[in-house]
Amino acid sequence: xxxxxxxxxxxxxxxxxxxxxxxxxxxxxxxxxxxxxxxxxxxxxxxxxxxxxxxxxxxxxxxxxxxxxxxxxxxxxxxxxxxxxxxxxxxxxxxxxxxxxxxxxxxxxxxxxxxxxxxxxxxxxxxxxxxxxxxxxxxxxxxxxxxxxxxxxxxxxxxxxxxxxxxxxxxxxxxxxxxxxxxxxxxxxxxxxxxxxxxxxxxxxxxxxxxxxxxxxxxxxxxxxxxxxxxxxxxxxxxxxxxxxxxxxxxxxxxxxxxxxxxxxxxxxxxxxxxxxxxxxxxxxxxxxxxxxxxxxxxxxxxxxxxxxxxxxxxxxxxxxxxxxxxxxxxxxxxxxxxxxxxxxxxxxxxxxxxxxxxxxxxxxxxxxxxx
Length: 372
Ligand code: BGC
What we know:
- The protein is mostly beta strands and 372 residues long.
- The chain has one domain (29-371): Beta-galactosidase, Chain A, domain 5 (Distorted Sandwich).
- Helices cover 6% and strands 38% of the residues.
- The protein is built from two helices and 29 strands.
- The protein has helices at residues 3-20, 87-91; strands spanning 23-25, 30-38, 41-49, 55-59, 64-71, 77-79, 100-101, 107-108, 112-115, 118-121, 130-131, 144-147, 153-161, 172-180, 185-194, 198-199, 203-204, 207-208, 222-225, 229-231, 244-245, 257-258, 272-276, 285-291, 297-303, 307-311, 334-339, 354-355, 361-371.
- The strands form seven sheets. Strands 12-13-14-15-29-25-24-19-22 form a nine-stranded antiparallel sheet, with no helix packed on it. Strands 1-2-3-4-5-6 form a six-stranded antiparallel sheet. It has a six-stranded antiparallel sheet with strand order 18-27-26-23-20-21, with no helix packed on it.
- The radius of gyration is 21 Å and the shape is globular.
- Residues 95-96, 106, 237, 272, 309, 311, 315, 335, 337 line the site of beta-D-glucopyranose.
């Protein structure tokens, strides 16, 4: 057979194999597979791989981190975030596993707020309050997604939230840029602009279990949060408006301690509160260190944001199973949602979440994994 014929056969075979598993290799360290459709839009799963072989998977459904696989101290790789390996898991509306939440992460009391004299009423979806953007927040939207760099594993997702969506004013253009670095950092950069005054609070809702096995709870992880104060809440988890010292309370994580040490003294099944970070400006600073002795994994969190919602998976109750069939029980995983404070639009003393036309919203959060 002629060389050119052989070459053509090889090309056709390669195209055939690629289309069989629907996989396309895109830019640096990123592959893309078709993952289904919803709302008449195509959903994809992107795999970001760094030089160390660590992999993070992200879907454009909800700009969701579906998996983060890394080695433990014995070089055994396992997943450290909750997720599903098919779109159907997400369409069943799990509690925001790995998603970007918005337009307003966490709660707005009674789903109401004012900007100047204009009163806005949001969709309420958590008792009488609005939670994580409403009935169909950013976590349930199909975003546009495109690999963003020739040299790093970066994925850019964008979404336009229309004026009036879930009751929020203004057409909001939002982008989220995920980068997996060779230092095992997952860097998340958020940008947004609006054409009308609105409120905004964007975060990522990944649930971590550093042991790599959700049959272990996170109660033996040790945690440090660089915050002398937190925002106490009422029985519906709306801040009372007070900024309270953590000193002498179960909320004191200024020195690393086991999460389970005082959790029984916290009402509501565990921690689900916003910590007021000690950092004084909006520069990127380390705010959290989470450690698991079994796996040897450490997760450090850096952010430009003023707060972090530390949530110990209190409402997880064994009714959801993840990809490997394991049931997700209470305290099987925890969230460290870097953010502005809950209900800020109704609390003039909290840092503002107002975004005006002409302003550029920008925030950065980095989750850094290491073995220590
Ligand atoms: C909230 C919890 C909520 C969870 C899942 C957290 O950010 O603070 O109250 O149950 O998200 O929706």
